Amino acid sequence: QVQLMESGGGLVQPGGSLRLSCAASGFTLDVQGIGWFRQAPGKEREGVSCISFVDSSTYYHDSVKGRFTISRDSAVNTVYLQMNSLKSEDTAVYYCATGDCWTGQAAAFDSWGQGTQVTVSS
After folding, report:
1. What distance in Å separates the CA atoms of residue 66 and residue 16, rounded to the nearest whole number?
2. For 2-29, what is each residue's pLDDT tens digit?
3. How many other β-carbons are positioned within 10 Å of the β-carbon of residue 71?
4. Closest of 30, 35, 95 to residue 59, by C-alpha
5. Number of neighbouring beta carbons within 10 Å of residue 2
6. How far apart are CA 103 and CA 90, in angstroms?
7. Contacts of 4 (CB under 8 A, 6+ apart)
8. Cα–Cα–Cα angle for 82, 93, 79, nearest 5°?
């Protein structure tokens, strides 16, 4: 079993930056990758980014390309999401989850964190 915990969310002005962290514990040996998802009120959960633990490939939703960067620190079992040039449309609860990046849909991801709120507002 893998346990995930997100942190780093908060309130930021448009154009600002936040860095989210996803710390993994438990049995992580077979984890294929970690993805970031977000869900805004009244909206379906959508994939934001993913990093493969197999080949280190990264993936991004078109809406965040050039603004967000996903990275991994294997030594501390943590995945980060650096978010720059934030927009009001980025406001959502952000979740990390274990799964295969190639699959790319939330239903195929196994272990989930509790989420961290990101609010972009002036």
Report:
1. 14
2. 999 999 999 999 999 999 999 999 988 8
3. 14
4. 35
5. 18
6. 23
7. 22, 23, 24, 34, 96, 97, 98, 111, 112, 113
8. 35
Neighbours of 77 (CB within 10 A): 17
pLDDT of res. 28: 86
Tens digits of per-residue pLDDT, 34-68?
A: 999 999 999 999 999 999 999 999 999 999 999 99
* CA dist., res. 87 & res. 16, Å (int): 8
Tokens of 21: 């962290």
Q: Quickly tell me which residue has 């710390």 as its tokens.
A: 23
Q: How far apart are the C-alpha atoms of 9 and 106, rounded to whole Å?
A: 20
> How far is the CA of 38 from the CAs of 29, 76, 89, 104, in angstroms?
25, 24, 11, 13
Beta bridge partners of 96: 36
**What span, in angstroms and rounded, lies between the C-alpha atoms of 104 and 100?**
7
